[in-house]
Write a structure and sequence with these properties.
elongated, 0% strand, 4 helices, mainly alpha
Amino acid sequence: MGSLDFGYTSWAQEQAVRQGSPDDNQTENQLSTIVKLLQEQKEGGIVHTYLTVIAFMMGLAFVILGLYIGQEHNLSILTKRLYLAAYFALIVPVTVILIRHIEVTLSSGQLDEPRLFVTFLLLIPVAASYVLMAIRSRGEILGR
């Protein structure tokens, strides 16, 4: 019985090889679809991580900005400079990352990409933080 099973298996494999072109093509298409989906999922995970880091850095920058503005009259010059250094160490890389992403996306012609819209939305609080800091700095300069 074992040799008959082996013979049938060999015959089935030969038939699959002879008639295999439609099945192979279908399998190849399915595999390429799976690979594309996996690549998109990987890219989505990376983008999700980047957006989380950017949001965290922006939140931290705003906390530092709020602490700086709220406690400014009680702070020494060194502490004020540390607050400003921490703020700009967080907000400048976020700005560079966002502008670079916009530049790359626009230069590649992917205007309908949803992440581009999110990037433009993230520029609003970044620009607002620069405006707040400029107003604050201008107030300090005029106050002296």
